[in-house]
Amino acid sequence: MANAHGYDVSIEWTGNLGTGTNDYRAFSRAHEILAQGKDPIAASADPAFRGDPARWNPEELLVATVAQCHMLWFLHLSANTGVVVVDYTDDAHGVMTMDERGGGGQLTEVTLRPQVTVTEESMIDQANSLHGKIHEVCFIARSVNFPIHHQPQAHVL
């Protein structure tokens, strides 16, 4: 039997403005994402859906999750192949497409734009090529049903 890992989080709605959900416009979408021993994440809906723009929304968190998993696997594969990474940033972008009925939508793609700094010029090509291998092993990339594009750029310190 394969190993299984469990992940426990709690969601706590904090947006009751006094009358609960008696009207679609009468409540806040504010909530917190909680896990034992961790700081809460202040979250809401996307501002397009009456959410608070100062809080994280589920769509942003999903894009961030894709980018995080990619980065962590990239660092792992870099260490295993002798690519010495000293800096990594990513300005990831996700696209949600609404369905024609207007009641829902889905993320239809995520583009990752990793900027990677390596210690030697000879590592640049290998660093850039590692991004194409991550989809095979990244837990999140293997779990989503939308394409994940990569626009990596590696450079020397």
Write a brief caption for the model.
The chain has helices at 58-81, 124-130, and strands at 10-13, 31-34, 41-43, 85-90, 93-98, 105-112, 114-118, 148-150, 153-156.
Succession of helices and strands = EEEHEEEEHEE
Number of domains: 2
Kindly report the average pLDDT value: 94
Q: How are the strands of the biggest sheet laid out side by side? A: 1-2-3
Number of extended strands: 9
Q: What is the strand content? A: 25-35%
Q: Helix content range of the residues, please?
A: 10-25%
Q: What is the fourth-level CATH superfamily of the largest domain?
A: K homology (KH) domain
Taking the sheet with the most strands, its summary is:
3 strands, antiparallel
By helix and strand content, what is the structural category? alpha/beta
Give the CATH class of the largest domain: Alpha Beta
Tally of helical segments: 2
Q: Describe the global form.
A: elongated
Please state the CA-atom Rg, rounded to the nearest Å. 19 Å
CATH architecture of the largest domain: 2-Layer Sandwich
User: Which residues sit in consecutive blocks of at least 5 with pLDDT less than 50?
Assistant: none
Calculate the terminal CA-CA distance, rounded to whole Å.
Answer: 44 Å
Under CATH, the topology of the largest domain is which?
GMP Synthetase, Chain A, domain 3
Features:
alpha/beta; elongated; 2 domains; 2 helices; GMP Synthetase, Chain A, domain 3; 3-stranded antiparallel beta sheet; 157 residues
Your description of this structure?
This protein is an alpha/beta fold and 157 residues long. The protein folds into 2 domains: 40 residues, no CATH class; 99 residues, 2-Layer Sandwich (GMP Synthetase, Chain A, domain 3), CATH 3.30.300. It contains 2 helices and 9 strands. The strands form 3 sheets. A 3-stranded antiparallel beta sheet has the order 1-2-3, with no helix packed on it. A hairpin with a 6-residue loop joins strand 5 and strand 6. The radius of gyration is 19 Å and the shape is elongated. The mean pLDDT is 94.
